Structure formats: C-alpha cells, structure tokens
C-alpha cells in the first residue's frame, strides 16, 4: 500500500502519540532526507536517563521504508526533547548512504565523542561546519535492550543538508533516551513522506515506549 503523508502546516507535539509500529520483515531505509530550510535547535536536547520505551514499537516482519523525507520548511525545536531510555543494537545496522552537508552546519557548543563512530558510506562536508557551542556527550548513551535490532537494518540513506542547520542550544547526552509519550503505531512506508510545511516542536517531546526490532 503506497501512502503519501504531506505535512504542510504546523505539527505541534503537545499530547501523546500512540501508535503501534510493527514491521514483519526486513527494515530497509532507502531514504532521502533533504534539509533545504533552516533547522534550528534553540531548546535543550538532553539525554539524561535510560531510554525506556513503554509503548511497543516492534519491527517483527518486513518493513520497507523507501521514503523520501523532504524538509523544505523550517523545523524548529524550541522545547525540551529528552531521551532517557536505552537503545540496543544487537543486529546489523549498515549505513551505506551518502551524508552530504552542502549548507552551513553550525554547532555553538563542544562536540565530544567518547565512543567509536564508523561511517561505511560517504560523508561529504561541502559547506561550512562550525562547532561554536556546546554539544556535550557527558553521559552514557546505553543500549540495553529496548530498541533492539536483532535482524538486519540497512540504512541506504541520502541525507542532504542544503540549508542552515544551527544548534544554538545545549545538546547533552547525560543518560539514556526517555520517551514519556507512548508511540504505538503500525506503519508501513512504501510511498513518499513529504514534509513541505513547518514542523515545529514547541512543547516537550518525551518518549517512554519500547522500541524492539525482532525482525530479519
């Protein structure tokens, strides 16, 4: 079933998004993510606790995401996005995509990496990438099971940042990934998912569900 989801207005997350997302197969992300507008992070994006997903987002079967996600508008995060949960990758997660930064990506903080970050694809920075702020990875981003990838999850993604991506806030990863809203949804994306409007996150986007990938 092909589906086109167009978000041409303002998408506020001030409530609870409940949807059960079950994928009974191979989950392929052959996604083109284009950021043509201005993506500003003016709030605090903190990773403080353990990423508990109390809603169930299970990928048990075949879930193909041949999705084109276009962000042509302004995506502002003026609220608090806290990730206090646990995110475990027990399977194979391949990034065979091209991650191109053609615009200006400014980080108004310090970006510290204490782990291993491997890129098997091509990561090209054609624009200006300035790290002026504080993007601290102080805590532990622990992956203890609750987003488990026990199958194969391939990300053949093209991420293009053609606009300006500014991080004016503090992006701290002190703990795990907390989800206080419950996201339970059954969604299969075989169509085009376009975000042409303004997607604003003005409130608190909290997730407390369980995101398990038990597929192939």
Describe the structure.
With 216 residues, the protein is mainly β. It has one domain (18-213). It is built from no helices and 23 strands. The strands form 6 sheets. A 6-stranded parallel beta sheet has the order 15-13-18-4-9-22, with no helix packed on it. Residues 1-31, 37-71, 73-151 and 169-216 have low confidence and may be disordered.
Short account of what is shown:
This protein is 0% helix and 44% strand. It is mainly β and 216 residues long. One of its GO terms (cellular component) is cornified envelope.
**Tally the helices: what do you get?**
0
| Sheet with the most strands: spatial strand order | 15-13-18-4-9-22
Instruction: Kindly report how far apart the N and C termini lie.
Output: 21 Å
Structurally, the number of domains stands at 1
Please tell me what the overall shape is. Answer: globular
Global structural class: mainly beta
Along the chain, the helix and strand elements come as: EEEEEEEEEEEEEEEEEEEEEEE
Mean pLDDT: 44
Give the biggest beta sheet.
6 strands, parallel
Contiguous low-pLDDT stretches (5 residues minimum) are: 1-31, 37-71, 73-151, 169-216
* Strand element count: 23
**Rg result:** 17 Å
Strand residue content: 35-45%
Helical coverage, percent range: under 10%
